[in-house]
Amino acid sequence: MNREIIVLQEIKHSFGWPIDAFRYGIPSEQRYIYDSSSANVLPVAIQERVRFSLRKAKIAQRLLNFLTYLPWVQMVFLTGSVAALNAKKDDDIDVWIIVDPKRIWLTRALDFFVYIFLGKRRLSFDGVESDRVKDKLCFNFYSTIEAYELQEQTISNAIQFVDALPMYIRDVAEYRSFLAANAWVKQIFPSWYQQVSNWFKEGDAVNSKWAKFILFEWILDATDYVAGVLMLLKAEKRLCVLPSQVYRKIFTTWGTPRILSKYDQETFSKSSQEGKQRI
After folding, report:
1. CA neighbours within 13 Å on the CB side: how many for 188?
2. Cβ contacts of residue 113 below 8 Å, gap of 6+?
3. Rounded distance, CA 152 to CA 63, Å?
4. Which of 121, 183, 201, 227 could form a disulfide with 105 if both were Cys (CB 3.0 to 4.6 A apart)?
């Protein structure tokens, strides 16, 4: 048993999460693994969460189709409980969007109004989350193609990176750059990294960007700036007006502490050695 399987079984099982063997490139007779028992049958409760997660992923794929018409949207992923196959019936659906530079606020404004109109966007009122969140989209992470590399290279981030379900990839070349910027992940999950890298070949780029017109780009830049000023005033309770304050590479509303942090850094090496000794 190799190191990455030991780590996955330790962490995923401790939180009651299943492992998608296919996603991690792990040879297995079953698609979904729960623990290292010989029978390896998913408990009924876990089977139910896997079904809910897959159902919500299909709902999200249909809803997120609108974003594919925005030429500056490069990639869209599902994260959170749905991506981890651990969603409950009433959970929302977390979304991570990667866009071109100076397009975070414009994207956020558009997805806000479109999905509010459709009744499919999670809302909060006066800081109190609405309890009507079932199957609604929660856009809690936006980043640009200038911020491909995850800043914290830890096991928890590696798991979230691998678990993220791609809903849309505009250009395969950009996705390859995304993988290359996070090549550190292959030190933890080499099977996954090799498998995903082999999915795409050189020259597979698709959906090339629309032709850019300078005047049109300036209008979009200005719109993004105005939207950013207004949204940051609401989000941070302060008036951000300098371009360096508004045009950000990352914006997130996800403030939940990383629940896997205790497994990060030095703990990874220690737990792996202990796992090898038990085999």
Report:
1. 24
2. none
3. 31
4. 227
